[in-house]
Amino acid sequence: MLKLSETKKRNIKSSEMPRSYACDKAVRMPMIKLQSLEGEVFEIDVEIARQSVTIKTMLEDLGVEDDDEEPVPLPNVNAAILRKVIAWCTYHKDDPPPPEDDENKEKRTDDICSWDAEFLKVDQGTLFELILAANYLDIKGLLDVTCKTVANMIKGKSPEEIRKTFNIKNDFTPAEEEQVRKENEWCEEK
Amino acid sequence: MAAAKLSSDILEIIFSYLSISDLRNCSLVCKPWYKYLNDEDNDVWRFHCVRKLAEEALKSDLLKNVPTYKAKLRAFYHAWNPNDCSKNMYVKSNGFSVHRNPIAQSTDGARGKIGFRSGRHCWEVWWEGPLGTIAMIGLATKYAPLYCHGYVGLLGGNDQTWGWNLVDNFLLHNGDSQGNYPTVNNAPKYQVGERIRVILDCEDNTLAFEKNYEFLGVAFRGLPDTPLYPSVSAVYGNTEISMVYLGPPLDG
């Protein structure tokens, strides 16, 4: 990092200096640059980015420094989705780490907070892209809430209703469908 | 469209939030979802199995012939019905064995949770304690009484039940002896702990048994087209009988 004395030697006008040098490093939040599929660069607080275990691992293993000019490429995530992921991570930055799944407890789907519920009022395409991005970036909280949302769209529906909801083609023959139905008849019992 | 192409990691998370009844509907949605749910040992089935079955059942060799998590779960759904057995019997905490209390002058029976009207079904039954003088194994309709006074062939003693007495190797239905079974001379006596396989064919309307992997022949024909339940009846005090549903019979 250039010291102020150096800038004088190099005849750089202080107004031309990058803003990040304008204040003391100790109070500035470390930032990291993320680059979407299309090449758009997003600069965010490292602590927010570290909610992604994928990014956290890159920072630790590859020694990617904050303040590196090189953005971290995320070719699997487009800009619109990355923007949404960053918004989710920013809102949830002070969340405690998600607890380990307790095998003995029923997994609930009625505990989605209202901010997340609002955040996920998106078209299905976006919902599934968020799932894929959360999976790729390994952000457990986002993956859980998006999958819970899909689970809520499945609950209580018949197979045909589920297909209609997600625009899935029925690729069973009637005979195959009948066989699967019979095999699993017991699942209806309480 | 995207929903049909989700990876198994993601399907696992979504399905882990669903009930068994919802999972059944999911397996009928499309082949990729069916394929994931047809892996009977995946974490989704393991999760339901561990939550519903008693730890002692999972740790013992009770369920050794239903190796996958889904099969164990299915066996539990077909097990002795704690709400459908004689008042002198109770289903043990393992969920699969019924215990007969030492009540004098009483014959007591139990029924499985699910009755069958179609398809082919196989389950294993074994006595964990002494047979006493009458130990019947077979079928009962929903209407068959599960208790009566005295020591009798309760299972087979009326037109709602069909029983094989493991003590004297006689078949009984509607109170009439149907002859001895198996029909070989000097058939070996039942040993406590031996698992007998019961094979019900609802298409052929027959009931047969198998012991030590040996098919013993058809025992009853002309079974009615009404739900038929795995059943036993017993007279010996403190004896216990276990039953594990296996699924469709594996044909040779």
Written account of the structure:
The complex is a heterodimer of chains A (190) and B (252). Residues 2-10 and 21-25 of chain A have low confidence and may be disordered. The longest helix of chain A has 15 residues, at 140-154. Chain A has 190 residues and is mainly alpha-helical. A three-stranded mixed β-sheet of chain A has the order 2-1-3. Helix content of chain A is 45%, strand content 6%. Chain A has helices at 4-9, 46-49, 53-61, 79-91, 114-119, 124-137, 140-154, 159-166, 174-183, and strands at residues 31-35, 41-45, 72-73. Chain B has 252 residues and is of the alpha+beta class. Chain B has helices at residues 8-15, 20-27, 31-37, 43-52, 55-59, 69-77; strands at residues 80-85, 89-91, 97-100, 106-112, 120-127, 135-140, 147-149, 161-165, 170-173, 176-180, 196-201, 206-211, 214-220, 229-234, 240-247. In chain B, the strands form two sheets. In chain B, strands 1, 4, 6, 7, 8, 9, 10 and 14 form an eight-stranded antiparallel β-sheet that branches. Chain B is elongated and about 65 Å long. At the A-B interface, α6, α7, α8 and α9 of A face α1, α2 and α4 of B.
Summarize this structure as a short list of keywords or feature phrases.
heterodimer, A: 190 residues, three-stranded mixed β-sheet, 3 strands, elongated, disordered N terminus, B: 252 residues, alpha+beta, ubl conjugation pathway (chain A), SKP1 (chain A), S-phase kinase-associated protein 1 (chain A), SKP1-like (chain A)
Major sheet summary line of chain B:
8 strands, antiparallel
The separation of the N and C termini of chain B measures 41 Å
Question: Radius of gyration of chain B from the CA trace?
Answer: 20 Å
Number of strands of chain A: 3
Number of discrete helical segments of chain B: 6
- What portion of residues of chain B is helical? 10-25%
- The H/E string of chain A reads HEEHHEHHHHHH
